[in-house]
């Protein structure tokens, strides 16, 4: 399922003078099936408004342009949002705040029961078990526990299990690693890579963390003032001073180092992942004869 | 004499296992202390003990001479220790910035003319002088959080506790808060920041690592962050500059150990 937005516009409170706010302006973007796509930009740049369009949480406004997700035409009045939402899973910031059921198993099963009313109890337990094991939790150990008795990292795993249990093709994550400690963060991001390999076709990540974007995203779109000012690989985006300054974003550390090294004549050409950056830097230094 | 002393403090929620077990440390006037640790290590419990939101079940917290064990001292302690939490939206209550900042001093019965001065002082300290009549809900996350800090500064605390106050902010917002912290430090206010961002902890005078309710490591950022194996075992990691330095060293470059900032890493690369 590709996500294709053409000339997408959105205005909050369009009829209220003084309060109306144009959050998206002529957004054109294609996110291909199979990508890990980053949506980046400052607070208030339109990122969240855009991603909430993808599963119809925000409906395309009249005359607001076109949006297709796979075969779903979101400008069509007859669009089947319910089946769309089963295919586009969305995880908000601090998803653990949305856990509510008495047991982990019930919490994970909640969305599934809503999407497939006639599903059998056996099928539910099979799917819940599968979802929990996919996120690295032991079904028998956690199923009867209260989600509130788990650690922060575990809670977040339960929350994502509750999304992937519906077997979405696209997973949209808003700040997936915020608030996790460094180890929890690394483990959670590795889980996302695993999900992407085995389970979910497309992952869309909204984040302020440029190190994360450089490390994990195949491509990204930069939002600024409701517009997309650049689309490309992390390498293309973070090599372009103009984009960075215009969007008010930080550089990932690898790109910041690359820039400073360049000013001293040490040229590296990496994709800005830590692994590639260090390898290319070692080669550059050796070729420059700067190694004692 | 330290402005804050945490002496062998323990705490448990009800009958549960102790969330803190014999924690001790002290904070000097104007010192910036970062507290890090994995989720569930006891950081937020410790923060709440510092201004008397929670009372230690063992040991004591002494703030400017007032002990947490003295029932009558809790207001004196709260006057001296201000807290700012994670979500700015949960901490602003008025519809105009100046009213929000006045709320604390009004409750303490500060005279009207003095409140006006306090608002000026607090807004200036966080660099938001031009937003006195603004509506908090229309501000950015970083601006809201600066107003939340201003509301606390209007009480003229000697210690400011930031409990993951930058977790929900974008990079710009985090920079704004870092600048405020730097400013406060210079003016003699002590800052205790609980954070998951290792690059914030690197800027502190002292880093405290909590693990399962005890202080597992403490010292200067340099000392704490150069203990790679210990950090790994505690569910933490070095700042990214340190990770990159390690990888370069592993590939044969002559990079010194215990590099923790971008500047140090570049410095090491220039001298190769």
Summary keywords:
heterodimer; A: 292 residues; alpha/beta; Rossmann fold; 2 domains; six-stranded mixed sheet; four-stranded antiparallel sheet; 12 helices; 10 strands; 41% helix; 20% strand; B: 272 residues; 11 helices; 21% strand; globular
Ordered list of secondary-structure elements with their pairings:
The complex is a heterodimer of chains A (292) and B (272).
Chain A: E1 3-12, E2 21-31, E3 36-40, H1 47-54, E4 66-69, E5 72-73, H2 81-87, E6 88-91, H3 104-115, H4 121-134, H5 139-142, H6 152-164, E7 170-174, H7 182-198, E8 202-206, H8 210-216, E9 219-224, E10 227-232, H9 234-238, H10 241-247, H11 253-263, H12 274-287
Helix pairs in contact in A: 3-4, 3-6, 4-6
Chain B: E1 4-12, E2 18-27, E3 32-36, H1 43-50, E4 58-63, E5 66-67, H2 74-80, E6 81-84, H3 97-107, H4 112-125, H5 141-153, E7 159-163, H6 171-186, E8 190-194, H7 198-201, E9 206-211, E10 214-219, H8 221-225, H9 228-233, H10 240-250, H11 262-270
Parallel strand pairs in B: 3-8, 3-9, 6-7, 7-8
Antiparallel strand pairs in B: 1-2, 1-4, 4-5, 9-10
What are the secondary-structure elements of chain A, in order, as H or E?
A: EEEHEEHEHHHHEHEHEEHHHH
Give the helices and strands of chain B as they follow along the chain: EEEHEEHEHHHEHEHEEHHHH
- The domain count of chain B comes to 1
What is the CATH third-level topology name of chain B? Rossmann fold
How many domains in all of chain A? 2
- As a percent range, the share of helical residues of chain B equals 25-40%
Protein structure class of chain A: alpha/beta
Dominant shape of chain A? globular
